[in-house]
Write a structure and sequence with these properties.
There is one protein chain. This protein is about 85% helix and about 0% strand. With about 160 residues, the chain is an all-alpha fold. It has a single domain, classed as Tetratricopeptide repeat domain (Serine Threonine Protein Phosphatase 5, Tetratricopeptide repeat). Helix 6 runs antiparallel to helix 7. The longest helix has 30 residues. The radius of gyration is 16 Å and the shape is globular.
Length: about 160
């Protein structure tokens, strides 16, 4: 309940989101099992920043979320796998907005592969990420044009 209110308010007031991320970092440092919650909050922050046109800052939050999820994947906890797929999708979307299409295609491709393997187990969690990542992958390929698609298809 409190987290939802913070996220809603943080979308309108970036300073609130920054403070929430600071608090989440502190909590995750004290209780490492909460790092997945930090990754989720960083994705929400990235979404808000991207909508506000602050793509570089959004990208930094997404990259931190990716690091947390990749590190947590070794624990075998399912939430990290879902978080990683969502973070990859978010990274691809931001890179697409920055017109960094080869990087967007690579991130979207990784999100597609991860989501494709997860959709059989958890279609409600992975299905939307799979569809959104395929959309970004198609947009990136379209923007790259045929001349660069051969290189990108080797992903």
């Amino acid at each position: 309940m409190v987290a939802s209110a913070i996220l809603r308010q943080g979308e309108r007031e970036p300073e609130i989101m920054r403070d929430a991320v600071k608090i989440a970092r502190w909590l995750a440092a004290a209780a490492p099992r909460l790092d997945v919650e930090l990754a989720n909050l960083l994705r929400s922050s990235a979404r808000s920043l991207s909508v506000a046109g602050e793509h570089e800052r959004a990208l930094a939050d997404t990259e931190e979320s990716l690091r947390i999820c990749r590190r947590g994947l070794s624990t075998g906890r399912f939430r990290y796998r879902v978080g990683l797929a969502k973070s990859l999708y978010m990274q691809a979307d931001i890179l697409d907005n920055l017109e960094r299409y080869p990087e967007a295609a690579a991130a979207a491709h990784e999100a597609v592969e991860l989501s494709r393997t997860g959709v059989g187990e958890e279609p409600r969690r992975f299905g939307p990420v799979l569809l959104a990542s395929l959309d970004i992958l198609a947009r990136a390929f379209s923007a790259l044009g045929e001349s660069q698609q051969d290189t990108a298809e080797g992903l």
